[in-house]
Design goal:
heterodimer, A: mainly alpha, 7 helices, B: 370 residues, L,D-transpeptidase catalytic domain-like, 3 domains, 8 strands
Chain lengths: 196, 370
């Protein structure tokens, strides 16, 4: 009887004791996936790398424990909970960064809109008739390009491609300012020529 | 006797248990060890590779490293499921080693590729800037098709987007925009270049006419020479340029005038046939020239004959050098417009009968591109 009991106890010992903290493991995985889904790998890339590495590290630790006779996952459970928390923080950081970019886009877009409005006003002052047509045709064409660009920025915001949207908005601003300078020059020349 | 028996049994039992425990401990010591330190190193290498940009610039190698690491982890988990004496980590070890090796390669290639991409983009942007400068200098004032002008403008926008992404360190995004910019800027430049080359087929004749204008002026006679490409109107006397004015031309100034309303400025050897003061022109002062001359009439007749021009097409007329210029654009219906103050000088310098030679360009295409 004693022999049987001893053998059974040893068998139990060898087939490990503690259970893998599956709930915490799933929660950590889900939190990381969620962070990635909202763009953490793009907008908070450094934090996301740390997050992925921490997850791998805990997984390694758990495998070490799984291979031991007496496994207890208390530390890993805590670490997984920490990773879930880190993922949530990364998510918040991502959202904050996205908001920052959105705000920057809005600011640049507002500047572009203002310059485009100034350009429209300048176009009304620009030479009319055949002498103005040639100059204005090219400028109008470039102005319409900015309007297209502004619409493309909006579409990129909707599809959550915020950084390309910001690039486009900044490029549109540069272009709008260049047209503004060109229009001012045309109008000034026209006014000067008309006075003669 | 019974007590003695019981004691013996306990003693034997204890011995057996101790022996079993000792055996277990001995076996546990003999258990194969998983490559924990190597896995930790592989993980660190993966992070290093990612930080070096390998996931973007050496994606295949980086992915391979990741796959080897994941395979090792799976292999380790599979071994952990086995009875401890049956566990083997040889394959796991091999996989980890592969992961480390591939992560190292990915890091190296990532750094190199990133550096190379950065340098290629920087040089590429510089080259596009030069192409834009050439376009602005050589082609911009040409009456180009709207599609060409738009492609060039879009190309400039894409280059600006490329520059923003580049300065922000997002080289992949910059690369995408760069490719678009190259396509647009090169295609618009190529199209404009082809139009200019096509027009310059007449360059030998322009050169001949330009030389003739200078030679005509050698006897002290004043000759007006208009260079359409340079937008210059030069007065020659005794083979020397005595004064030069900026000139504005017809909206479709490139190419010879062929018919009424084409808004082209004619090319050829003409003469002033009427001087109009401010009472006889709405353009301050004007010098009417004899377009179409005999040569134009012959050419137009030939074109009508070979069908390249409609039989009833009219050549147009009333081509003048007049005032109201200085607008910075080509805006006339085919005339040559000077600033009013320049027109007054020219008006005083020339008489009826003064030769007016209009050429496409006095410089060759090669000289222009220099």
């Amino acid at each position: 009887m004693t022999l049987v009991l001893t053998a059974a106890s040893i068998a139990v010992l060898f087939t490990s004791c503690g259970k893998v903290p599956q709930l915490e493991l799933d929660a950590a995985h889900a939190a990381i996936e969620q962070a990635k889904a909202i763009g953490a790998d793009v907008y908070a890339s450094a934090d996301f790398v740390v997050l992925q590495d921490s997850m791998r590290s805990v997984t390694e630790q758990m495998e070490v424990k799984k291979g031991k006779l007496f496994a207890s996952y208390g530390t890993e459970k805590t670490q997984l909970a920490e990773i879930t928390g880190m993922a949530a923080a990364t998510e918040s950081k991502t959202e904050a960064r996205k908001q920052e970019v959105k705000l920057e886009i809005e600011t640049v877009q507002a500047e572009v809109t203002s310059v485009v409005a100034q350009n429209a006003e300048l176009l009304t002052q620009a030479p009319k008739g055949k002498e103005g047509a040639a100059a204005l045709e090219a400028i109008k064409s470039e102005n319409s390009l900015i309007e297209t660009s502004v619409a493309e920025v909006d579409a990129l915001i909707v599809s959550n491609d915020l950084l390309p949207a910001l690039d486009k908005a900044k490029a549109a601003k540069t272009k709008a300012l260049a047209i503004n300078a060109e229009l001012n020059e045309v109008v000034a020349k026209y006014i000067q020529a008309s006075r003669r | 006797m019974r007590v003695k028996n019981k004691r013996e049994k306990i003693f034997i039992g204890t011995i057996v248990v101790v022996l079993l425990l000792l055996l277990s401990a001995a076996l546990a010591l003999q258990m194969p060890k998983p490559p924990v330190a190597e896995l930790k190193l592989a993980r660190a290498k993966l992070v290093e590779a990612q930080k070096s940009g390998a996931d973007v610039f050496a994606p295949m190698l980086y992915k391979e490293a990741q796959q080897w690491y994941d395979s090792a982890m799976i292999g380790w988990a599979v071994q952990n499921e086995r009875f401890f004496l049956n566990r083997k980590y040889t394959k796991v070890k091999e996989q980890v080693d592969k992961a480390i090796q591939k992560a190292d390669e990915a890091s190296g290639k990532g750094i190199e590729q990133k550096k190379q991409t950065k340098s290629v983009l920087a040089l590429g942007m510089m080259s596009l800037d030069q192409k834009i400068a050439v376009y602005e200098q050589v082609y911009k004032k040409m009456p180009l098709p709207t599609a060409v002008v738009q492609a060039h403008s879009q190309g400039k926008m894409k280059l600006a987007e490329c520059r923003v992404a580049y300065e922000d360190g997002r080289l992949t995004e910059a690369g995408k925009n760069y490719k678009n910019a190259v396509d647009l800027i090169e295609s618009s430049g190529k199209h404009a270049g082809q139009l200019l080359s096509h027009w310059f087929v007449d360059y030998p004749q322009w050169k001949k006419n330009g030389d003739k204008a200078i030679s005509l002026s050698r006897g002290g006679k004043k000759v007006v020479l208009v260079d359409k490409y340079a937008h210059r109107c030069v007065v020659y006397q005794n083979g020397q340029a005595i004064t030069t004015f900026d000139a504005e031309l017809g909206i479709n100034w490139m190419g010879d005038k062929r018919l009424k309303g084409d808004k082209a400025t004619p090319e050829g050897i003409y003469k002033v046939i009427q001087k109009k003061d401010h009472q006889h022109t709405r353009f301050h002062r004007a010098l009417l020239i004899n377009y179409p001359n005999d040569e134009d009439k012959r050419r137009i007749a030939a074109e009508k004959k070979n069908g390249t021009l409609a039989r009833l097409a009219l050549p147009g007329g009333l081509i003048e050098i007049h005032g109201h210029g200085g607008k910075g654009v080509n805006w006339t219906d085919g005339c040559i417009a000077l600033k009013d103050e320049d027109m007054e000088i020219l008006f005083r310098l020339v008489d009826e009968g003064t030769p007016v030679v209009i050429v496409g360009s006095l410089k060759s295409l090669a000289e222009i591109h220099q």
